[in-house]
Amino acid sequence: MDVMRLALSASQKGKLMSAGFTSIASLSSVSPSHLALELKVPETEALEILKSVTDGSRLQSTSSSHTIVNGAQSAWDMLQEEETSVHITTSCADLDDILGGGISCKEVTEIGGVPGIGKTQLGIQLAVNVQIPYEFGGVGGKAIYIDTEGSFMVERALQIAEACSDDMAEYNRLYRKGPQACDVKMMQPKDFLENIFYFRVCSYTEQIALINYLDKFITQHKDIKVVIIDSITFHFRQDFDDMALRTRVLGGMALNLMKLARKFGVAVVLLNQVTTKYSDGSFHLALALGDSWSHASTNRIILHWNGNERYAYIDKSPSLRSASAPYSVTPKGIRHSTSNNKRAKHI
Q1: Rounded distance between C-alpha atoms, residue 192 and residue 131, angstroms
Q2: Is there a contact between 165 and 192 (Cβ–Cβ < 8 Å)?
Q3: Between the N and C ends of the chain, which has fewer C-beta atoms within 10 Å?
C-alpha cells in the first residue's frame, strides 16, 4: 500500500514522498523523532502520521490475508506461463531473435545507451508496435508513455505509426485473400496515436506519484500492455544530493514497477542514461544510478556503437543468453541493420 492512500493531508503526503517514504513498508520501523527530522515537522505531527500508517497497515493486512494464503504457484504453472508468454516486436528481426521474440510482457526490461543511440526511438516504436492486432501476430494492446525529459516527439510517433499501418496493409495484401482480407479491420495512424497515453512529469515527486497511480489507471484500462519510462534516470540524477535517500526512493519505485508487470501482465520498459565508471585502471561506460539499481530490472539491454553501426547487447537476463544484434534507426523507425556484419564485441 502506498502513502497516497493513507488518510493524510495532501501536504503530508507530499512531504512523505519527497523524503522517500512512498509505502507503508518504508515507514514501518521509523521512530517519531526520526520522521519529524526527515519531514521537518513537529514530533506531534509525526506521531499523527505514524498512527495513520498503523491504521492503514492493519487494513491492508486484513484485506490481503486470503491472498497471502492462496498466493502459491507451482513451478509447472510458472513454466507454462513462460512458454506461453507474449512479446512485443521491436520491428528488427535480429533484435527480436536474441530477445526470444521481442520485449517480454510480465517483465521489467531496462534499455540503456549513449545519447543518439536510439533509446527514445525504440521506446516510441514499442508504444506503436504493442498495438499490432492479434491477426498480425501482435499483442493488440495500448501503451503508457511516461516522459521525464521532454524527448517524446509526436511527429516521430506519427511517422512510425504510418509505417506500421503501411506494413499491415502490405501484409494483408500479400498473405490474405478474398473474404479473409476483408474481415480484418485495418488500423490507421490516428488509431495508433489515440492508444498511447502520454504523461509528462517534471520532478521526481511527480514521477513517484504517477507510478503509484498506475495500478489504478491500468485497472481502468485493462488493455494496457506496455509502460515505457523515458528516462527512469533523469530526475534522480538532477535533484538528489542524499544518496541514501535516493537509494530508498528508487528501491520502492522499482518494487512497484515489478508488481505492476506481474499483476497486469504488462511489459515495463525503463530507458536509462549512461555514465562513466572507473575500474581496472580505465574508464568505461555504465548505466546510470549505480550498482544498487542494477537489480531493478529482469532484463538489461545495452545499446552501443560498433564503428558506424548500432548494436544491442543483452547484458543481464535470467532466461536469455548474452548476445548482440545490429539494428538501424530509419525514417520508418527501428529496422534491420543495413550491414552484413553480424558480429560485434561488447564494449
Answers
A1: 7
A2: yes
A3: C
Q: Residue 62 has what pLDDT?
A: 53
Contact in structure between 132 and 164 (CB atoms under 8 Å): yes
Residue pLDDT, tens place only, 157-171: 999 999 999 999 998
Which amino acid, residue 52? S
What pLDDT, on the 0 to 100 scale, is given for residue 168?
92
Task: Phi first, then psi: give them for residue 237, nearest 5 degrees.
Answer: -90, -25
Q: Residue 318: is its pLDDT beyond 80?
A: yes
Q: Which of 122, 77, 116, 75 is nearest to 103 (CA)?
A: 122
DSSP letter assigned to residue 266 = P
The three three-digit cell numbers of residue 238, written as one number:
538532477
- Round the CA-based radius of gyration of the chain to a whole number and report it: 22
Grade residue 11 by pLDDT with cuts at 50, 70 and 90. Answer: confident
**Average model confidence (pLDDT) across the chain:** 85
Please, is 238 exposed, middle or buried when counting C-beta atoms within 10 Å of its C-beta (0-12, 13-18, 19+)?
exposed
Residue 177 phi/psi, 5-degree rounding, is -120, 150
Phi, psi torsion values for 238, nearest 5 degrees = -85, -40
Contact 196/157 with Cβ under 8 angstroms? Answer: yes
Inter-helix orientation angle 43-70/32-39, to 10°:
110
Q: Higher-confidence residue: 67 or 111?
A: 111
Dihedral (Cα; 243, 234, 329, 198), 10-degree rounding: 130
